[in-house]
Amino acid sequence: MKKMNEKETVAKLLAEHTVKHVFFAACGGSIAAMYPAKYMLEKESKTLTIHWQNAREFCTAHSAALGKDSVVIVTSQQGNTPETVDAARVAKEAGAAVIAFSYAEQPPLFEYADYCLDYSYGPDLIPSQKKECRVVRLSMELLHQLEGWDKYDDAMESFAMYDAMIEKAKEKCLPEAERFAAGCKDEKLIYTLASGSVWSSAYIETHCILMEMQWKNSACIHCGEFFHGPLEITDKDACFLLMMGTGATRVMDERMAAFLPRYAEKIYTIDTEALGILELRESVREFFAPLLATAICGVFNTHLEAATGHSMKLRRYMWKVQY
Fold first, then answer.
1. 1 pLDDT exceeds 60?
2. Which residue of 13, 63, 133, 310 is surrounded by the most CB atoms within 10 Å?
3. What is the pLDDT averaged over residues 158-177?
4. Which of 90, 91, 27 has its CA nearest to residue 53?
5. Is residue 152 predicted with pLDDT exceeding 90?
């Protein structure tokens, strides 16, 4: 099946389907990578209802709204995640349009897809072509073609500036990345904190890196929820990685940044405003903040891997035992 760009995909989708409901379904880092798009559509769309679910839960307990006026967006690195392939099949059987993302050439996932898109992955990846970026861009294109989104031009201009911004941010974050690696290499438990669109970056860091790839205990805590229970774990021995976004939800991140130094000593920060997000168009910055934060996490994690000597490729159970 021919792979298309975002504009072609949305034009073909809207020519062939009515779209009232958008579903995002995947597992692990892939479902988290689609959260920025989900956040953007929920905040900006006036006509669409948005659903975001783990792929297995989508298969077993999806909304009754799933049907002919739905589009289901699924992602899988190699396109062979069983739960995500099943989600695509369930969507197809319900009469929904299916858009699938994978970096593999002809993965099983594409068998159930109406529209197929790839993305940049590996050591030579292009930042603006990563999975989370392409899903956001697709969602922005959908919003524009369906509703005439008034921030579309700002969004496309920001994408044109994105790769250069990321390269500068990676250089700028190096001192904090080195401090994080040195300070956290022997930590047994690391809390990640974020809010708004950047919450997904904290989720990926906790689940896919610290727990899966470094075998460290971790918990992802929403900054808005921290002060409703979790704050009681704060002391000089607790370790925190705070990710700060921009826009309307930043007030929650700033509250965290003000509170933690009063009682904690091990605090590391990824601040998207300090790292260059303010270079992008103000109307859409918050939708790019998680893309920047996730990219910077990659720098932090490369340093952490070197400091711990624990390879990111090492697994005990994943792909090795029945589960």
1. no
2. 133
3. 98
4. 27
5. yes
The type of residue at 26 is: A
Which is it for strands 49-54 and 266-271: parallel, antiparallel or unpaired? unpaired
How far is the C-alpha of 55 from the C-alpha of 220, rounded, in Å?
Answer: 20
Residue 194: is its pLDDT beyond 70? yes
Q: Which residues contact 205 (CB under 8 A, 6 or more apart)?
A: 192, 218, 220, 241, 243, 297, 301
In the chain, the domains with their CATH numbers are: 6-149 (3.40.50.10490), 161-308 (3.40.50.10490)
C-alpha–C-alpha distance, residues 234 and 239, integer Å: 9
Nearest residue to 280 (alpha-carbon basis) of 171, 168, 157, 139: 157
pLDDT in tens, 93-140: 999 999 999 998 889 999 999 999 999 888 888 999 999 999 999 999
* β-strands 70-75, 21-26 pairing: parallel
What is the C-alpha separation between 126 and 120, in angstroms, rounded? 6
Would you say 51 and 64 are in contact if contact means Cβ atoms under 8 Å apart?
no
- pLDDT confidence of residue 125: 87
Closest CA to 7 of 125, 124, 159, 197: 159
Provide φ and ψ at 30, rounded to 5°: -70, -40
Provide the total of helices (H) and of strands (E) in the chain, helices listed first: 12, 9
Assess contact for 292 and 247: CB atoms under 8 A: no
183 or 121, which is more confident? 183
What is the phi/psi pair of residue 8, to 5°? -65, -40
Average pLDDT score over residue span 180-200: 98
Mind listing the pLDDT tens digit for each residue in 206-219?
Answer: 999 999 999 999 99
Vertex 33 angle, CA 28 and 37, to 5°: 135
Where do the H-state alpha helices sit in 173-249?
A: 174-184, 199-204, 223-226
